[in-house]
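Sanity check. The docking grid for NDP depends on where the pocket ends up, so I'm generating a full predicted complex first rather than guessing from homology. Inputs follow.
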Amino acid sequence: AQTPVKVTVTGAAGQIGYALLFRIASGQLLGADVPVTLSLLEIPQAVKAAEGTAMELDDCAFPLLRGIEVTDDPNTAFNGVNVALLVGARPRSKGMERGDLLQANGGIFGPQGKAINDNAADDVRVLVVGNPANTNALIAQQNAPDVPAERFTAMTRLDHNRALSQLAAKLQVPVAEIKKMTIWGNHSATQYPDLFHAEVGGKVAAELVDETWLRDTFIPTVAKRGAAIIEARGASSAASAANAAIDHVFDWVNGTDWTSAAIPSDGSYGVPEGLISSFPVASRGGRWEIVQGLEIDAFSREKIDATVAELEEERSAVRELGLI
Ligand code: NDP
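Predicted complex below; grid placement will be based on this.
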């Protein structure tokens, strides 16, 4: 029988965790024939709630779910982990400065990176969802020097999926007809959803929409969708974030020709080496590769440079704080 894959979810008692765990256990993260064990990491005051979720997972009698553990100890949670989904993070509270936010998250992602370094399986793959996701991923990575750097990634797949659905609605086409969508840069308001390489029925998407819509509606709608959902729902997007995390890991493991993911830059497209920035990526043999050879026009160049500048500022800030 196949050895179960160990999947660890941090912030397991949170909203995204609740939307994520049942789908992992049902086989949607890795494939319908891959058994899993789940490790739920929480802070001490949320362990009881996570235990409640574990009881519900038991009650689903998922055939692929071979074990559940609930813990507040990162060394236990990441012991032998194959897929780590880092969801729990310190949210920005009112009046909090960026430095305080980064400091608080350094206190979470630094120790978690070290615990991954010391305990994870050799094939560990890490996806950071908790914000600021790109820089939290960088902090974890820099605290895990024995793990190949490329195994630390951050999620821009929700932005990618939002871009697909906005464009599909505008052009009145099924989402599956859209190819080569790309999100560049930071998972933040500066992100750049790129229609100059996206294709619909073999035509460049940017040529099928008017420039004003692209610039003044599409880009801000995708970038600010999270806030619009909070406004409408009275709570942040959780199911769609969980869905995107599933998509990211599934494609990483099982392969894809083109999607968006924040991965460590090798210097491609002028993005400074080492920044964990979103690119157009393919996955082959379980490894992300940046899609090469795209021409970047002046409009896109400016947008990419702006979001990458923000990532550089965040990296400088966490360096100054001694977090990396
Ligand atoms: P959620 O489960 O809703 O969100 C968790 C994180 O995901 C937040 O940082 C959030 O960022 C981020 N996120 C990324 N993309 C999205 C998106 N598209 N929509 C919404 N969120 C997104 O938060 P909860 O407060 O419900 O739960 C967090 C849990 O994490 C709590 O149970 C807490 O106890 C736990 N926690 C666990 C830690 C650990 O395991 N060591 C450490 C810290 C917290 P944003 O805030 O910007 O929305």
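Relevant for the grid: The chain has ten helices and 14 strands.
Also worth noting: The chain has a mean pLDDT of 97.
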